[in-house]
Design goal:
2 domains, 0% strand, 212 residues, mainly alpha
C-alpha cells in the first residue's frame, strides 16, 4: 500500500466552518475563482440552497437567511464578489476570534483559599468596624471553612479559620469562635457530621418500627 497517497484530514487545510463540511468549502472556493460575476452569483445562490437543506432546523430562527449569507462570506474569506441580498459586513465580527482572557497570576500564601478569599482579606483590612464588616467577616469565614473542608482533608475547625483570618488580615480581624458557631450559616465540621449520622440512623429505625 502506498501510504504517501493516503489523504488524511489532519493533512488537509483546516475548515473555516466545519459544520458545513469540506464539500461546501470546495464549492465556495470554486465560486470565488469564477471569472464571471453572473456565474459567481448563480453559484453562490446554489450553495446557499444546499446549506439551507443541510441545516433545516435553523429555519425557525428569524434571521437564518442572513446567517447563511454571512457564513458564505466568512467561508470565502470575504473574497466572493457578488451582490449579496443582505449586508454581510457584520459577519466579520462572527469570524474574528475573541481576545484571550487574562488569568490572575497573583501569588497567594496558601492555595486552598484561592484568590477570591484573599481579595476578601484585603477588603476587610480597609473596612471600618461595624455591621457591614461583621457580616463580610462571617461570610469570609464561611467560605474559608468550605475551602478547608474541600482541600485540606476535611480539617475545617473553627479555630483554624479564626487563626487564619487574623493572620491574613494582619490582625485587623479578630473573630471569636463563638461568633462563628452562633452564625446562621455555621458549617458542621467533619467530626460533627459523623456524630449526627448515628442519630439520623436511629430516627430512621424508629420511623420504620412505628410504621409496622
Amino acid at each position: 500500500m502506498n501510504i504517501k497517497g493516503l489523504d488524511y484530514n489532519t493533512t488537509r487545510e483546516k475548515l473555516v466552518l466545519p459544520e458545513y463540511g469540506r464539500e461546501i468549502q470546495k464549492m465556495v472556493d470554486y465560486a470565488v475563482a469564477l471569472p464571471n460575476k453572473t456565474d459567481r452569483q448563480r453559484c453562490a445562490e446554489t450553495i446557499i440552497a444546499v446549506m439551507d437543506r443541510m441545516l433545516p432546523h435553523n429555519r425557525a430562527n428569524v434571521d437564518y437567511k442572513q446567517k447563511l449569507w454571512d457564513h458564505l462570506a466568512i467561508m470565502s474569506g470575504f473574497k466572493l464578489d457578488i451582490d449579496y441580498p443582505y449586508d454581510v459586513s457584520g459577519a466579520a465580527k462572527i469570524a474574528s476570534k475573541p481576545q484571550p482572557m487574562s488569568y490572575p497570576m497573583n501569588r497567594i500564601p496558601v492555595r486552598h483559599y484561592g484568590n477570591m478569599v484573599f481579595q476578601l482579606f484585603e477588603k476587610l483590612k480597609t473596612m471600618e468596624p461595624g455591621a457591614a464588616r461583621t457580616e463580610l467577616t462571617l461570610i469570609t469565614a464561611e467560605q474559608m471553612k468550605r475551602d478547608l473542608s474541600q482541600w485540606s482533608h476535611g480539617s475545617n475547625s473553627d479555630e483554624k479559620v479564626v487563626s487564619d483570618l487574623a493572620r491574613y488580615t494582619d490582625g485587623m480581624i479578630q473573630l471569636d469562635v463563638r461568633e462563628m458557631q452562633n452564625a446562621r450559616f455555621a458549617i458542621p465540621t467533619k467530626q460533627q457530621n459523623q456524630q449526627q449520622k448515628p442519630q439520623n440512623n436511629e430516627r430512621r429505625k424508629g420511623r420504620r418500627r412505628s410504621n409496622h
